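User: I'm putting together notes for a lab meeting next week and I want to include a structural view of one of the chains we've been expressing. I don't have a solved structure, so I'd like a prediction I can at least talk through. The sequence is below, exactly as it appears in our construct file.
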Amino acid sequence: MEKKFLDETGLRHLIANKIKPELDKKVSLDENGMIPADKLPSYVDDVVEFEGFVDDATILTESFGGSTVYTVVYVRAKKCFAAQTGLTQAKTYYNNWGTRENYQELNGNPYGGKIFVDINTNKTYRWGGTELVEISSGGVSLGETSSTAYAGDKGAQNAKDIQAIKDGDLPLVGLSIANFNTSTQAVVTPWKVKTADGTSVACTALGSLDTLYGYTVTFTGSYKWQETAGYKSPTAVNGGNWKNKMLPKSGLYSEEITVDNITSDTTITASVKAPKQGLIVENGYVKAASAADFDTKSASISVHFQYKVFAGAVTSALDKSGLEEKLQSSIKGGSYVAQNGRGKVLTGVTTTSQQYYVYAYPSKLGKLTKITMNDAVPLLDGGFTFKTLTVKDPETGMQLEYNVYTSEQMGAFSNAKLDIA
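Assistant: Thanks for the context. Below is the predicted structure for the 421-residue chain, given as structure tokens.
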């Protein structure tokens, strides 16, 4: 086939009848760089306005007069638009008005292809199938379902709240109690133990102390706290034995205090506090911390007194000197047991035909309420006699009164169990 070049007539024909019709099919921007409205799909150009939202309303089905002034609002509870008429204090709502077909279908559902503009806020919305959702932010539908984007302001607030809970209300730093020797820069025992005549008794306990009832104890010590990452520092003293003292600085010991003449169980307490901060969780709910919300932290050290109790077989009823002998230290032949109260369960109790059985303890603990043998036989009344003896404790030097229970009969027990309380 012979090849030919286009002449001027052929070129004009190609441009006018072939190229230009195809170009006319393409979308061109107008002089403002926008797509001309006549090139947009009909639903994009179909924009209607309304005047805000109403939470709920009774919507009448009858029509109203054509000359009645009305505005179109969206009723959230009914999920539809309505015509609102009347004054501010006497408004009426209708589902049938002159331009209703521009807003929603006969069944009351807003059109899915429409864009609705709230002229009060200039925010734009579309019908999402179950609710009117905002599309003002770049065409993204905002909401809280799987098909919508979560509102940025809500997300930012959530993140802020979570961070406030994590970082705003840190736990309060702990504290400790000790006796610090400023000369040797060492922690030493805070306790001094003395007998009744003032003789010192060796004591090396750095923490809580267990000792014998009858001694007199003195506490001397301080407390301190240390600034720590991830914890908040105390801002004030919160009572305890240092309640009238100044809060020490981080890493420094507080003012030293002394508690004298301790003769019964005693706890020495240091307590500090700091205000709660930011958001806190209280009773399962998140709330902002108030000026009355504080965290507290305490430390304590204590002295506990144990009681000398004698339980055993004797050849004659104990008198003052006999009981004092039993209360000697084991090194000097004593045979007492140090315990926390008057009660005890004894097993294997045996007395010969020449022995009584004695149970003795400080009267401070009160009288016994029972002595039962082998979980069945009551012996408190009729099985034992009762008396009190005032003795000088051989170790503590303290004058103490003892309750002394002695079996009425010699040889009364053979491998018996005694439950004493």
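A couple of points you could mention at the meeting. The chain has a mean pLDDT of 88. Residues 315-420 form one domain.

User: Perfect, that's what I needed.
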